[in-house]
Design brief:
Low-confidence stretches: 1-5, 26-30, 446-454
Radius of gyration: 39 Å
Structural class: alpha/beta
CATH topology of the largest domain: Nucleotidyltransferase, domain 5
Strand content: 5-15%
Number of domains: 3
Strand order of the largest sheet: 3-2-1-6-7
Number of strands: 7
Order of helices and strands: EEHHEHHEEEHEHHHHHHHHHHHHHHHHHH
Helix content: 55-70%
Shape: flat
Length: about 500
C-alpha cells in the first residue's frame, strides 16, 4: 500500500555532534526509498533530496562519550532534547490536541521511542530512514566543511576508543569472565595432561616397563620418572625419597626390586635428557593445574557461592561458562539449566521424535550418580530447579553467602532419601525461611542477642496490655453501678416535679 508522506526530518548522530536533515520530497514512501538508493552515491542528486537543517556539536570528548552512551541505551539526553525542541517546527493545536505536520526519522528504535515518549514528536524507523542515514554518513563532510580534512575521522577514532574502553572497564560480567577463562583452561589442561602422561608412560616404558604397573597415578608416575631417571642409578640410599613420592613403603621397595631385574632397554644420555625434559614439563603442568583449581574455587566463593555450595565449584563454573555469564544463567528457567550442554542430543531427539535428554552438564554432579536409574530424571529436574534458584540468588544478592546453597544441598539430600526410603522431606518455604534467618543473623552480628532483646520487649508489651485489660474489667462494674444510681436519681427528681 502506498502512503502519502508529510515532511520528514532525519536525526543523524555522529561522533562530532547531532545533525538534523530535511527530506524535501512529497512523493510516495516506496518511490522515495528507490530515489534515495539511486542518489546515495551521487552528491548532486542526494543534496537535492536531502537538505541540511541544523547541527549541534559536542562540547568536549567527555560530553560526546556521555551522549553516545545514552544513545546506545535509548536514553534522551538534555543536549538532544534541547536540539530537537529548538530546530523542529512547533505543533499546531486543534480541539485541544497537538497535531504535527512532519515526522522525525531515527536510525535507532530505542531513540525513536524515547523521543516520542518524552517530547511527543511522531517518529518513524524504516528502510527509507536507514538509506537516508547511509547517504548522510557518506556525504557528511560535504554538508559540514569544518569536519573535512580528516577531522571527522579523528573524532570517530577518539570516540570509538573512549566508548570501547568504558564498556570494557565497567563490564558487569568481568568476574564471570575470569571464571569462564579459568574453567576453559582447566578443561584444556586435563586433556593435555592425559595425552602427555600417556606419552611419558609409553616413552619411558622402553627403559623401565615394570614401573608402569606399579604406579598407576599419572602425576606420581611423572614425579617418579623425574626422580629415578636411569634405573641403574636407583639404590637403597634413594629409597626414603622414593617413598616420599609414591607415599607407600611397599611400592617403593617393589620399584627398587623391579629396577634390579628390569628387562627394559638401555637409553643414551641424549635420549634420557629429552625424556626428563618432557617429564619436567608434565610435572610443572600438574602443579599449575592445582594452583588454577584453587584460584577457581576462591573466585567461585565470591561470584557464585550458593551455586558452588550446591553442586560444586567445577560444575557451577561449567554452567556459568556455557551460559556466557552468571546473569545469563540466572535468566534461564530450570528446564534450560537441566539440559545445558546437551543441546545436540535435544535437537536430534526432536528431529527424530525420540526421547529427549534428561541432563546436560549437571550430570557431573554427585547427586545424579547416586540416584538409581529410574530416579535420575526426577532428581535431575529437582537439582536443576535448585540450581536456577541458587544462580538467581547469587546474581542479585549484594553480599555473598553460602547459606542458601547449603540448605538447598540438604534439600537435594532429603529428596534422594525420599526416593529411596520414602522419608518425607521438608517444605521449601520452611527451609528458605530458615536460611534467610541465618543470613540476617550473620549480617546483624550478634543476631541472637538482638532476638532475645526483641522477645523480652514483646513479653513486656504483652504483660502491659494484659494488665490494662484487667484494670478495665475491674473498673467496669463500678462504672455500671454509678450509671444505675444516676438513672434512679433522675427518675426520682422527675416524679417530685
Amino acid at each position: 500500500m502506498l502512503l502519502r508522506c508529510s515532511v520528514l526530518y532525519v536525526l543523524y548522530e555522529s561522533a562530532s555532534g547531532y545533525a538534523l536533515f530535511e527530506v524535501s520530497a512529497s512523493e510516495d514512501i516506496a518511490a522515495l526509498d528507490e530515489a534515495v538508493q539511486e542518489a546515495v552515491s551521487d552528491m548532486g542528486k542526494f543534496s537535492r533530496t536531502i537538505q541540511f537543517k541544523a547541527f549541534k556539536p559536542f562540547e568536549s570528548a567527555e560530553n560526546a562519550l556521555e551522549n553516545i552512551n545514552c544513545i546506545s541505551e535509548g536514553v534522551l539526553t538534555d543536549d538532544l532534547k534541547n536540539f530537537l525542541e529548538m530546530n523542529l517546527p512547533k505543533a499546531s493545536v486543534k480541539d485541544g490536541k497537538k497535531k504535527y505536520k512532519y515526522k522525525l526519522g531515527c536510525s535507532e528504535k530505542s531513540v525513536a521511542t524515547a523521543v516520542q515518549e518524552s517530547l511527543g514528536f511522531p517518529c518513524q524507523v524504516n528502510q527509507t530512514v536507514n538509506e537516508i542515514c547511509r547517504g548522510i554518513r557518506q556525504h557528511f563532510t560535504n554538508y559540514i566543511s569544518a569536519l573535512d580534512g580528516g577531522n571527522l575521522s579523528k573524532a570517530q577514532l577518539g570516540l570509538g576508543h573512549s566508548y570501547s574502553r568504558a564498556k570494557v572497564k565497567f563490564n558487569v560480567n568481568r568476574s564471570d569472565n575470569m571464571i569462564i577463562q579459568a574453567i576453559c583452561i582447566l578443561d584444556q589442561l586435563d586433556k593435555d595432561i592425559n595425552t602427555f602422561s600417556m606419552r611419558v608412560r609409553e616413552w619411558y616404558s622402553w627403559h623401565f616397563p615394570e614401573l608402569n604397573k606399579l604406579v598407576p597415578d599419572m602425576f606420581i608416575y611423572a614425579r617418579s620418572v623425574a626422580f629415578i631417571q636411569n634405573k641403574e642409578s636407583l639404590n637403597k640410599d634413594k629409597l626414603a625419597e622414593l617413598t616420599a613420592i609414591v607415599l607407600d613403603e611397599d611400592v617403593s621397595a617393589q620399584i627398587l626390586q623391579a629396577a634390579r631385574v628390569s628387562m627394559g632397554m638401555e637409553m643414551s644420555e641424549v635420549d634420557m635428557r629429552n625424556v626428563m625434559r618432557f617429564t619436567d614439563k608434565l610435572v610443572s603442568l600438574g602443579a599449575f593445574r592445582k594452583q588454577l583449581h584453587e584460584y577457581l574455587s576462591t573466585k567461585m566463593s565470591f561470584v557464585a557461592p550458593n551455586l558452588g555450595a550446591l553442586i560444586g565449584e567445577m560444575v557451577a563454573a561449567r554452567l556459568i561458562s556455557h551460559a556466557g555469564s552468571l546473569t545469563n544463567l540466572a535468566k534461564c528457567p530450570a528446564s534450560t539449566v537441566q539440559i545445558l550442554g546437551a543441546e545436540k542430543a535435544l535437537f536430534r531427539a526432536l528431529k527424530t521424535r525420540g526421547n529427549t535428554p534428561k541432563y546436560g552438564l549437571i550430570f557431573h554432579s554427585s547427586f545424579i550418580g547416586r540416584a538409581s536409574a529410574k530416579n535420575k530424571g526426577r532428581i535431575s529436574r529437582y537439582l536443576a530447579n535448585k540450581c536456577a534458584m541458587a544462580s538467581r540468588i547469587d546474581s542479585f544478592s549484594e553480599e555473598p553467602t553460602t547459606k542458601y546453597g547449603e540448605k538447598m544441598r540438604d534439600q537435594v539430600e532429603e529428596r534422594l532419601a525420599f526416593y529411596d526410603s520414602g522419608a518425607a522431606p521438608r517444605k521449601n518455604i520452611d527451609v528458605m525461611r530458615e536460611a534467610a534467618a541465618e543470613v540476617a543473623a550473620a549480617a546483624g552480628g550478634g543476631g541472637d542477642d538482638a532476638g532475645e532483646k526483641k522477645s523480652k520487649k514483646d513479653k513486656k508489651e504483652k504483660k502491659r496490655k494484659a494488665s490494662a485489660v484487667e484494670e478495665e474489667a475491674a473498673a467496669a462494674p463500678v462504672e455500671a453501678k454509678k450509671a444505675k444510681k444516676e438513672k434512679k436519681e433522675k427518675k426520682e427528681k422527675k416524679k417530685k416535679k
